[in-house]
Design goal:
Blueprint (H helix, E strand, L loop, with lengths): L9 H6 L18 E3 L4 H6 L4 E7 L4 H16 L4 E7 L4 H6 L7 E6 L2 E7 L4 H11 L1
Parallel strand pairs: 1-3, 2-3
Antiparallel strand pairs: 2-4, 4-5
């Protein structure tokens, strides 16, 4: 049975359906990415010893959704050297504004509670690896 001739977008939707994050091409994370909020940011990020990568994102942001599997990868790949957290921008305006977030996604790397690096915009795995390796 082919696509509905009355719906010209049916075939495109079928072909370009998003692949779930748990598909074989995207390994699932053994180490979870922590949810960070206004209430927990100070303790979990600023009060943490060692390195913490915070992904500031929004569900309506396409590039942010592309970065989600990379955050899972970073949490697993750098387990023991790096904690990874994600902060949803819209429901957490106090932290978003305090961290001067201008665009999404924004990655902020903290070491012992101090910001050491920041990147605004999506990136591929090799760029994320280079970003982390340069600052860890």
């Amino acid at each position: 049975m082919g696509p509905d001739p009355q719906d010209p977008w049916a075939l495109i939707r079928r072909i370009h359906r998003p692949r779930p994050y748990n598909s074989p091409s995207v390994p699932s994370a053994a180490v979870p990415v922590a949810e960070v909020t206004d209430a927990t940011f100070a303790a979990e990020v600023l009060g943490a010893e060692g390195a913490v990568l915070v992904d500031v994102w929004a569900p309506w942001c396409g590039p942010c959704r592309l970065m989600a599997p990379l955050m899972d990868w970073a949490a697993s790949e750098y387990d023991g050297r790096l904690l990874v957290g994600k902060l949803e921008a819209d429901p957490n305006p106090a932290t978003r504004d305090a961290q001067k977030i201008q665009g999404l996604p924004t990655l902020i790397l903290f070491r012992d509670g101090v910001e050491v690096a920041r990147h605004e915009g999506a990136m591929a795995r090799p760029q994320l690896k280079a970003f982390l390796d340069a600052h860890l």
